[in-house]
Amino acid sequence: MTAGGAQQGLEIVPVEGPRDLDAFVRVQHELHRGQPHFVPPLYIERRDALSATKNPYFKHAETRFWYARRGDKAVGRISAQICRLHIAKHDPQGGHFGLIESIDDADVVAALTGTAEAWLKSKGMRRVLGPFNLSINEQMGLLVAGFDTPPRLLMAHDQPYMGGLLEQAGYAKAKDVYAYDYDMVAEPPKAIARLLSRQAPPRLVIRPMRAKEYGVELARALDIFNDAWADNWGAVPYTPEEVLHLGKELKPLIEARYFWFAELDGEPVGFIIGLPDLHQAIHDLDGKLLPFGVVKLIWRLKIRGVNGGRVPLMGIKRKLQSTALGATIPLYLIAKLREAGLAQGYRHIELSWILEDNTAMRHICEALCGPPYKTYRIYGKELA
Length: 384
Hints:
This protein is of the alpha+beta class. It has two domains: 5-177, 3-Layer(aba) Sandwich (Aminopeptidase); 182-375, Gcn5-related N-acetyltransferase (GNAT) (Aminopeptidase). It has helices spanning 18-32, 43-49, 84-89, 106-122, 162-168, 190-197, 214-228, 240-250, 279-282, 293-304, 318-321, 324-343, 359-369; strands spanning 10-14, 61-70, 73-83, 94-102, 127-130, 142-145, 172-183, 204-208, 259-264, 267-276, 308-316, 348-355, 374-382. Strands 1, 2, 3, 4, 5, 6, 7, 8, 9, 10, 11, 12 and 13 form a 13-stranded mixed β-sheet that branches. Helix 4 (106-122) links the parallel strand 4 (94-102) and strand 5. Helix 7 (214-228) packs across helix 8 (240-250). The relative contact order is 0.15.
């Protein structure tokens, strides 16, 4: 497809094979090259994440990818997705877009979004939300505030102009999600410190992950997560295949001291997982592990270490969320993570993604961290 008029010379290329997928992945690197806070993701990880044979997301979703070029220069990219779990739970005519990148050019964004929208409409979709990269359980939202610091592990970093270009293409805010920077060195607020100094109820036990039962423990945590987030905006459950895949992907990064459960009368009712900030270890590898990237990565993670991390997964079962004990359990879990992190030289850990209307979790985060330091926006549009 070649756009005409003001878009003369702009070609939207469908991804139809491994060579196209490589070009699609490289668009992000090329458009962010030289920016001080962009952390190039590893090419091998990105190719696997977008592979229908390696990412179990594709078992319950239909996807298409396109990239834009003018001559031999890449100028943008986009994906379109139809997630059957989202359709079954939320909107039978709701599709998604994601992985959007562009130069600062409204014509490019209009051509990319128009291509994705046309495909979604051909499949019966009448609304679109995004960006989701690719699932709401992977990456979600476009960075609209907080461009002055690098992204943490598994978080996006977008161009400051992208939100405005999407709005010019007819998109409007659907929901914001927040990231909080927790200064682990600072003492907790007095009210929280007093609460944590009291002895926990005998019925409540906070314990670390049992490393010898890693697979079972991760499945247990994601069962809690599916229950905890079931009523949240846009939430879809992890499938059994996704649990196995996530367990394999995260195993090199997960340690028992950063993976905690809350048990009430012997029943797991809450959990928290903290991961080291891999971005600190890969920021200068330009997405490549060869020839020396593997050595650098292992040395930085295992020997030099990193000084920060991120909490990508946390949850408290719904039956406790409106109780006083349920409001306290996250504080006990975060306190355990803080204690372990400080012992390893961590200074900061990110708590994210927090939906703007998740007031209970926002109150906890803002008591510990202050206001959010990054905002990610999910956009929506009606498809005429």
